[in-house]
Amino acid sequence: MKMTKCFAAALAIAALCGAARAEWVEIEKFEDGMRVYADATTARRSGDKAQLMHLVRWGEPQVEPGLPPYLSTRVTAAYDCSGKTERYLASVSYAGAMGSGAKVVADDNEAEEWYSISTASMEEKLWKIACAAK
């Protein structure tokens, strides 16, 4: 019994360590210093639908009334691979860059509408990564 608990604890720690080692690859840099990164290891696809997590590293601290400033936001979006559309699922913003530091605010107000993805846009890059998942 003791060995089973140790094994379960080791698995839980390994899962947490894996989540902390996101493989962020920069896919877009804007003039204002904002950078967008994608982690292809978070892509999940089922039929024509896919999900992907991306990270926004803000060029300047983002300030919302009543909240401390934040420097990065991790976003999860859904993609329709055949329809070339996307919709927002959730996000978490952090005090530090690259999803580090304290969690400042979370938003899980999933969008109901699907939005068209423009050719040669940042969204198209994310759509291609998400839809390439097996």
Features:
single chain; about 130 residues; alpha+beta; Lipocalin; 2 helices
Structure description:
The protein is built from two helices and eight strands; from the N terminus they run H-E-E-E-E-E-E-E-E-H. The protein has 134 residues and is an alpha+beta fold. The protein has a single domain, classed as Lipocalin, CATH 2.40.128.710. Strands 1, 2, 3, 4, 5, 6, 7 and 8 form an eight-stranded antiparallel β-sheet that branches. Strand 5 and strand 6 form a beta hairpin. The N and C termini lie far apart (37 Å).
Q: Would you tell me the overall average pLDDT? A: 87
Helix content: 10-25%
Q: In total, how many domains does the architecture comprise?
A: 1
CATH third-level topology: Lipocalin
Number of helices: 2
Note the topology:
Elements: H1 2-20, E1 25-29, E2 35-38, E3 44-46, E4 49-62, E5 70-80, E6 85-94, E7 103-107, E8 115-116, H2 122-131
Antiparallel strand pairs: 1-2, 2-4, 3-4, 4-5, 5-6, 6-7, 6-8
Task: Give the gist of this structure.
With 134 residues, the protein is an alpha+beta fold. 22% of the residues lie in helices and 40% in strands.
